[in-house]
Amino acid sequence: MKLLDGQVAIVTGAAQGIGLAIAGVFADHGARLVVADVNEQAAVGAAEELAAGGAQAIAVRCDVTCESDMEALIAECARVHGSVDVLVNNAGITRDATLRTMTTEQFRQVMDVHLYGTWLGMKYGSLRMREQGRGAIVNISSISGKVGLPGQTNYSAAKAGIVGMTKAGAKELAHLGIRVNAIQPGLVRTAMTEALRPEIWQEKLDGVPMGRAAEPEEIGKVALFLASDLSSYMTGTVLEVTGGRHM
To answer: Quick one: 232 exposed, middle or buried, by C-beta within 10 A (0-12, 13-18, 19+)?
Structure first.
């Protein structure tokens, strides 16, 4: 059974990593996709990769911190595919530094991409979804937003903010048939995390009861659950996908 047959999904930050994995899982379950990313060339490559596997996918260049870009993204999805059924607010960056050395620019960049970008997605995505009378929004937070991690005061604050935003949005939109949920991934094997120094990687791994990092597709499967009717009576929830880390 394909859980997203006939549905249209937008994934931001979908040119690589967790975003691309989510798009791939959605494609396997019948979704028509909009691959949104600030890197247009990478977005086109990702959409072509998905299409080669049989998916219907288009690429849209989108800076999630630009209101006109986000509004245009939703409009383009509706124009090409006819609806906006699922929106995954995944785009993110890191600018790690200690509190003492972090610059104002580094703090604001991370807050803008994660928090403001997610808010813009929720705002314009829900405007379209309310016309349809249904929709599912999945916001990608992080376990860092629950526990706080040294060197990530900006990232931890932004990811915690996404949790509050998810719950507030869920309460506003439930009566319109729009569900809003969030995922807090833990240690995930991506190009970014694999660039960590071996001793840092091992230290993080030692804190995972399951003894391994997640594969990006495992986050994608949880996003699929929240996007599909399997979670039809869930809204405002935050699912930790951490292998037991920081429970």
So the answer is: exposed
- Taking CA atoms, 14 is separated from 20, 153, 244, in Å, by 4, 25, 26
pLDDT in tens, 123-168: 999 999 999 999 999 999 999 999 999 999 999 999 999 999 999 9
Active site includes 155? yes
Distance between CA atoms of residues 150 and 187, nearest Å: 15
Q: How many CA atoms lie within 13 A of 103 on its CB side?
A: 5
Note the pLDDT tens digit of each residue in 95-104: 999 999 999 9
* Catalytic option among 116, 124, 155, 233: 155
Give me 40's structure tokens. Answer: 């247009």
Alpha-helical segments (H) within the chain? 17-28, 40-52, 67-81, 104-111, 117-132, 144-147, 153-173, 191-194, 198-206, 216-227
Global pTM? Answer: 0.97
- Phi, psi for 53 (deg, rounded to 5): -90, 5
* Cα–Cα distance, 22 to 77 (Å, whole number): 17
DSSP 96: -
Q: Provide the phi-psi class of 106: left if phi over 0, else alpha when psi is between -120 and 50, else beta.
A: alpha
Alpha-carbon span 49 to 207, nearest angstrom: 35
Query: For the CA atoms of the chain, what is the radius of gyration?
Result: 17
How far is CA 223 from each of CA 23, 96, 197, 204, 230, rounded to the nearest angstrom?
10, 26, 29, 23, 11
H or E segment and range at residue 10: strand 8-12
